[in-house]
Amino acid sequence: MKKTVSIIVPIYNVEDYLPRCVDSILRQTYSDLEIILVDDGSPDSCGAICDAYAKKDSRIRVIHKPNGGLSDARNAGLDIATGDYVYFVDSDDWIADDAITSLMMRMDDTVDIVMGSSVDVREVDGKILETAYSIPLGSLREMDRLEAMKDDLLGGWAAWNKLYKRMLFQTIRFPVGKINEDEAILLHILDLCDRVIQVGHPTYYYFLRPNSITTSSFSEKKMDWFHNCVANYGFIQEAYPQLLPEAEYRLMSSVQYLLQFMLLEHKRFSDQILQLQSCLDEKYRSILRNPYTTKEDRKRLRLFKIVLRWKLGWIYRTVYGLYRKLR
């Protein structure tokens, strides 16, 4: 008897992209699917589109709920999922026709997660352009728990484009009201895994649209990444100290990213800058010696250290403005 895969699609304000997403799921060569469309209180016609699809295919289940954000929508799907495996698709993305088939070919009772190669795509002048692949095509890699955790810490995995045993989510849910929700849970998911397989076959098309969560304008919500990295560092310190260099590098990557933007609006983000400065001061000597820290990282970290210590934010903002003009 074939195993069932629950595909969970959180949906909000994507009426222009939703049919492309759902159609790609319905075209799957693997047919034993439970398709869960979660209308997260979308103000456009997404809810009606979901209902129309449910009338066409009995495998589709629709949830209509008040808006609670991406995590809450995924959790709602997990709460009713009955499949042996779970797969997440964001509603502005789409998947290859053989995505589930190619992942299921590598799945067995000893494997916990199978992931394919995602393809970054952009729309330019009405044409879809493929720009990058997350995994080298044709490759096959098997990882144990530590190898998978290391890869996640150094690469920042997303929850989508992975086929999970559903039992991995028995006690784990996405944090509601937060962004960077994948960072918050993936290490804890991997903590339950023994085998993870990467397949170098394009399975997922990640659409880089201007107003998505990941490409939206900067706000203090981006601090969720830092807070998740701090929590993950503490988890690694206690449970997997051999991965501390990777956890530290991930943490300081979040500090670098956030400081480069927050220093441009230091009055608006003064409290957040103090948190980041405290972390930089605490980890400064260690991160400079970290084997993953590059020459460019060291330059930026030294610059931030000087700017913050001597309160030279105005110089940073001036130089940054000139750099942007000259690009």
Structure explained in plain terms:
The model has no long low-confidence stretch (mean pLDDT 93). The chain has 11 helices and 10 strands. The chain is 44% helix and 20% strand. The N and C termini lie far apart (59 Å). The protein is α/β, with parallel strands linked by helices. It folds into 2 domains: 5-207, Spore Coat Polysaccharide Biosynthesis Protein SpsA, Chain A (Alpha-Beta Complex), CATH 3.90.550; 220-326, no CATH class. It has helices at residues 18-26, 46-56, 70-80, 99-104, 145-155, 181-190, 223-239, 244-262, 270-289, 295-309, 313-326, and strands at residues 5-11, 33-40, 60-65, 85-88, 94-95, 113-124, 127-133, 140-143, 162-165, 196-207. The protein is globular and about 65 Å long. Strands 1, 2, 3, 4, 5, 6, 7, 8, 9 and 10 form a 10-stranded mixed sheet that branches. A hairpin with a 2-residue loop joins β6 (113-124) and β7.
Mean pLDDT reading: 93
Q: Give the overall shape, derived from the CA principal axes.
A: globular
Q: Structural class, from helix and strand content?
A: alpha/beta
Biggest pleated-sheet summary? 10 strands, mixed
Index terms:
alpha/beta, 10-stranded mixed β-sheet, 327 residues, 11 helices
What can be said about this structure in brief?
It contains eleven helices and ten strands.
Q: Any chance you could write out the topology, listing elements then pairs?
A:
Elements: E1 5-11, H1 18-26, E2 33-40, H2 46-56, E3 60-65, H3 70-80, E4 85-88, E5 94-95, H4 99-104, E6 113-124, E7 127-133, E8 140-143, H5 145-155, E9 162-165, H6 181-190, E10 196-207, H7 223-239, H8 244-262, H9 270-289, H10 295-309, H11 313-326
Parallel strand pairs: 1-2, 1-4, 2-3, 6-10
Antiparallel strand pairs: 4-9, 5-10, 6-7, 6-9, 8-10
